[in-house]
Amino acid sequence: MTQRTLADVFVDGARKGWNVGVNSILPNVLMAYVLIQILRVTGLLTIMGNVFGPVMAVFGLPGQAIAVLIGAWLSMGGGVGVAASLFASKVLTATHATILLPAIFLMGSQVQYMGRLLGTAGVQSRYYPVMFGICILNACIAMIIMRFFA
Q1: Could you say which DSSP state residue 3 is in?
Q2: Which of 59, 97, 123, 143 stands the most exposed, by the fewest C-beta atoms within 10 Å?
Q3: Mean pLDDT throughout 8-31?
Q4: Is 2 exposed, middle or buried (0-12, 13-18, 19+ CB in 10 A)?
């Protein structure tokens, strides 16, 4: 067996990372960006903003920020894509993004994890709501804390 150099290990890791980024993360970010554009064109983003505005105001966010949390709950990359799209269209500011960032990571990809991890590990489905609730509660606490420090 031959010894692999540090450069070989690095190149192999970079190739694997590229494949993960292109095949897993990029489609989620692109899907989220397209979804936000559809919501904006149809006017549903404005309606979402009006409906969820009072709830999101607790965290110092506009109502449209709920789309970031929903996107993050489905896919962390999707949540980042939604946040980037809303930031680019000036719906979110840098302060809003700072408040949302911990929540994206604390509650991100739960739907994907439910199938990939919890299902294959044999966790009973009756525990799913508790686990999801804890993650969402942690995200809410983080947004409240970030509201005062952002």
Answers
A1: P
A2: 123
A3: 81
A4: exposed
Looking at residue 140, its pLDDT comes to 96
Q: What is the 3-state secondary structure (H, E, C) of 104-129?
A: HHHHCCHHHHHHHHHHHHCCCHHHHH
Unique residue bearing structure tokens 């993650």: 135
- Sequence ranges of the domains in the chain: 28-149
d(CA 122, CA 87) in angstroms, rounded, equals 39
102: confidence class by pLDDT, cuts 50, 70, 90: very high
Alpha-carbon distance of 83 to 100, in angstroms, equals: 8
DSSP letter at 91? S
Over the stretch 35-81, which tens digit does the pLDDT of each residue have? 888 888 999 989 999 999 999 999 999 999 999 999 898 888 888 88
With contact defined as beta carbons under 8 Å apart, do 150 and 101 qualify? no
- Kindly state the tokens that stand for 131: 């686990």
C-alpha span between 41 and 83 (Å, rounded): 17
Global pTM reads 0.79
